[in-house]
């Protein structure tokens, strides 16, 4: 059935391309945009605001959102034409470029600008000192992913070698990390929300530090597309970026409870109190980007994180892998 849907979608795009080509050579546009997100997370609240508040529709776009767990799987879907736009870690475009792609994946708007994970201990800790982690069993995130790299970057900043000074566990699937900690694995764990807030509510763990605050600003999660797609459908990319800019401003201006109400339908199994707690935590530490522009300083910080993790092979050309033109226009046009 999935394959049939993909073939049908491809057929629609072919027909649409033919119709638009017949219209006197006008810039091609898509009214339907297939988006793949790497996970469903309150960390991506502005995206869900754009959907729930009709901001994409205001731009004349219909967004089909699919969750595709794993950055490698999202990249595969994007490269193969299964989706048009990806919401995934910025490192994904670098990994694809390192493999020598002739049609690079390009970031055109950032959604989050810090890491979104937190250090969680089994018991409350007052006056936490990073040096107290030496010798503990640390349940980290997947090797090569931004959460793990940002975590290791932070540890090194505090003089801790993750490979030598910790008993580091990083071979557990992302979806199983929280349950592994709850069942007794590890003294400390690196967790995304809402698991961190859920553990605090249930007394299973306590947030004692933020990797987002410690690792600094990064183009952490970006919207990206193939360069060929962006060249073919620049108006569609612009409209998409406009909608995201509108949502980013909305999130900055609104109170926590209103934001939580706007995104709650995307998290039907999550208590509204937890959603509010997560939104407040991410707002307070500035995780939600205020616009889509990815500046070069943030990009260089990202490269430093990858370089320290041993994942950067050569250079990652900012000018080749980032296109701020759409975000710059959106910031000017959307008030």
TrEMBL record:
PROSITE patterns: PROKAR_LIPOPROTEIN. It is found in: Periplasm. The keyword Calcium does not apply. It comes from the Bacteria. The keyword Signal applies. Its main location: periplasm. Keywords: Signal. PANTHER family: ALIPHATIC SULFONATES-BINDING PROTEIN-RELATED (PTHR30024), TAURINE-BINDING PERIPLASMIC PROTEIN (PTHR30024:SF47). Belongs to the bacterial solute-binding protein SsuA/TauA family. This is ABC transporter substrate-binding protein. It comes from Paenibacillus chartarius.
